[in-house]
Design goal:
Layout lengths: L3 H8 L26 H7 L13 E2 L1 H10 L5 H16 L4 E6 L2 E6 L4 E6 L1 H5 L8 E5 L10 E4 L1
Length: about 150
């Protein structure tokens, strides 16, 4: 009896009620874990790798309307910085994030990677933003800071 399974089979009852499931010890492990060591599985559960280029942000129709009302058009560089900020927020477990970029505020649904609304400077100055669980400060200009993303949770 060199295998753990043999030992466990000796410990389980020989007779089970009809229709009952076999004990957990007799069930097969999940397919994703087959062939993987325990350490490999644990390593896979660690911090997520941030890949902003693979998961771009979408902008909802409502957010596009708000941006248009404010005369704001986001550059490709700004969208890339926002996408990186969303990846950082996601790695920290954020759900609804206020992203502040200069005088612009954007509420981003992190799981859906969608900008849901844009906030005017007046709304930002009111001091009350509700239904968010995190804030990310995103630098508007790469020249002012080589690291354009700051995360505060």
């Amino acid at each position: 009896m060199s295998h753990e399974g043999d030992l466990l089979r000796m410990l389980e009852p020989a007779v089970r009620p009809a229709g009952s499931a076999p004990p957990a010890s007799a069930r097969r492990p999940a397919a994703a874990a087959e062939g993987s060591s325990f350490q490999q599985v644990l390593d896979g559960l660690g911090d997520k790798q941030i890949r902003a280029d693979a998961l771009p942000l979408k902008i909802s129709a409502h957010a596009q309307k708000r941006l248009g009302e404010q005369g704001v058009e986001l550059s490709e560089r700004q969208m890339r910085a926002l996408s990186e900020a969303a990846a950082l927020a996601e790695a920290k477990g954020a759900g609804e994030t206020l992203m502040l970029m200069g005088r612009l505020g954007l509420i981003v649904n992190i799981p859906n990677r969608t900008v849901v609304t844009a906030l005017t400077e007046g709304r930002l100055q009111s001091g009350v933003i509700t239904q968010i669980d995190s804030t990310v400060l995103v630098q508007d200009s790469a020249e002012t800071d080589p690291d354009p993303v700051r995360l505060e949770l």
